[in-house]
Amino acid sequence: xxxxxIFILGFVLIVLLLGGYFAWKVVKSSQxxxxxxxxxxxxxxxxxxxxxxxxxxxxxVTIKPGTAVRWKNxxxxxxxxxxxxxxxxxxxxxxxFGVFNAGSSVQYIFTKPGTYGYHNQxxxxxxxxxxVTK
Length: 134
What we know:
Blueprint: H1 2-29, E1 46-52, E2 55-57, E3 60-63, E4 67-73, E5 79-83, E6 98-100, E7 105-110, E8 114-120, E9 123-132
Parallel strand pairs: 1-4, 3-9
Antiparallel strand pairs: 1-2, 4-7, 5-6, 5-8, 8-9
């Protein structure tokens, strides 16, 4: 009777150890890194436009679709980037970023060809243009 109990106990321990080992292998294999971007994927090009007390620089930028434009506020006050036409800002509503703080930036990826005029709502004489070619 005692031998049978030891045999059953040993068998259960072996089954538990083997089950634990295989469960550990499954968990470990599921922790392999997954890559969301293929290695040969080209990331979108970026262009910086700075906003200073004198306005946007450069005032005009020509880019290809898929390019990100980043407007950097290099003033010491909050500023804006808004679509033309002043004051309604309705031509390209996606450019209506509103106020962004000194030292910060806003960004937009242009996907469609066209000419995009914009301005600083707080200083309407500060204007710029993004030209997206085919």
